[in-house]
Amino acid sequence: MQADMPEACGGNGSAPNPGVYVRAGMASCLAILVKMSATDMGLDLARVEVDLEMDFDNAADAVTPAPLETRFRIRVDTYVSEAVLEELLERSLAHDPFYVALRNAQSVHAIIETG
Q: 55 CB contacts (<8 Å, ≥6 apart)?
């Protein structure tokens, strides 16, 4: 896998930036969990698509580099009721490690080593 940053950020723009990979992984994980949850519920989904949008404060003096807001938009082809779709969404999100990590504060540690 290759990653780079845009020229405006000091990179060469030769590959997607790391954030593209993060968002793609998060969206695809949720899409798979929606499909798996639907199967467990006995639902037939012809199509599952997940889009993910994140808002950042890109100002030079931004308080945090973290996203200010994250939105998942899930589209499915099915004929089930809205109540069933809400249950499907709840089940899927409850098992999505990336969604839970974004939603819940957590302890994160980094270690740097030589060699």
A: 67, 68, 69, 70
